[in-house]
Write a structure and sequence with these properties.
The complex is a heterodimer. By secondary structure, chain A is an all-alpha fold. Chain A has helices spanning 18-23, 25-33, 37-45, 47-51, 58-65, 69-74, 79-88, 93-99, 105-113. The longest helix of chain A is centred in the middle third of the chain and has 10 residues, at 79-88. The model of chain A has no long low-confidence stretch (mean pLDDT 95). By secondary structure, chain B is an alpha/beta fold. Helices cover 34% and strands 23% of the residues of chain B. In chain B, helix 4 (98-110) packs across helix 6. The longest helix of chain B is centred in the middle third of the chain and has 16 residues, at 160-175. The chains are: A mainly alpha, B alpha/beta. Chains A and B meet through helix 2, helix 6, helix 7, helix 8 and helix 9 of A and helix 9 of B. The complex binds fe (ii) ion.
Chain lengths: 129, 279
Amino acid sequence: MAIDKPYKKVPGTTIFDADMASLGFHLNQFCMSLMKAPNREKFKQNEQAYLDQWPMSDEQKAAVLARDYNKMISLGGNIYFLAKIFSSDGISFQAAASTMTGMTQAEYAQMMLSGGRAPDSSNTLKKDN
Amino acid sequence: MAKINAGIATSHVPAIGAAIDNGLTENEYWKPLFDGYEFAKTWMKAQKPDVILLVYNDHATAFDLNLVPTFAIATGAEFKPADEGWGPRPVPNVMGYPKLAAHIAQSVIQDDFDLTVVNTLDVDHGLTVPLSLMFGQPEQWPCRVIPIAVNVVLYPTPSGQRCYNLGKALRKAVESFDEDLNVQIWGTGGMSHQLQGPRAGLINKEFDNAFLDKIVSEPAALAKTPHLEYINLAGSEGIELIMWLIMRGALNDQVDVKKRFYHVPASNTAVGHLVLENK
Ligand SMILES: [Fe+2]
């Protein structure tokens, strides 16, 4: 019997479970390689060539090149691993998060200053779900 | 006899560490947050703990996808601050306590909690930011620290109930150690936050404040909160709050709240903080 995964229904949210981790294994391990300064240098010099050393799908590589974080997450990337990419780019967690929301960085920063995104019926599951 | 006398809960947002390291704690954005930790810093100087059991999570730093322990205890003598992609934080190395850590491992594993034993562990912001918040910027940390790492990155994480029960087993382990030691337990991470996807930026003040109430007054009931409720209401990264239950499980059923603090935002995150003493 398949395991029930009710967390799949939470709006605007991808939960990094073992299935996603399997899909994104090489993508995430590529990200880990960026924790070493010499690897960050090599990646910056030629991103495509660096990515080609990893057995990732073309779709995953394209998402990295485009810095499309929602796409990377849908292909098995986890945000704490993907953080190594935007850290290498010198981009803050908040700036990177904003790119996934369809808001500008300034709009997102203002939302956070005003208390963050409030939970409502459009972004949370109802109790009986 | 060693004894756990107090518990600390605090968020461990990396941007807080960056603010400390870059001397920004007095600016308009950060000052209200750091003011909330002044009590704990003064209190800590009077408490003088010998050892801290520091419950935190690794954020794809020491543990990559090759190995994801659900619970791990670090038995090494010294731990370096990790390079998380922008160079290590300029903070002292963390000194462990191998003898006590080995004793705890032996005790809780025989008590049915199968901790992974780690010797070499570079510690990331999850562990070093709480130390900075409580102790400021000393040359050396004033006490020993035993890192206890919990997986909250790869779903499923351990349940709240499992965490709460582990806290109880940790307490039993500490109390069966022969040296006279003043031990604290810290639970870190949270509160509500989501760092990913179109829903990034979620903050739930109602959830967080209810959590701050219940972890003091009805922790056993709080421990039954299912994963889905954290994810749905406190954000995908809000699940870190289960680590507070390990801290709480290691304290008495009745505790005195010496400090409670809540602040939004630190970067993407709601910050919560408690100082609890055993009654
Ligand atoms: Fe964290």
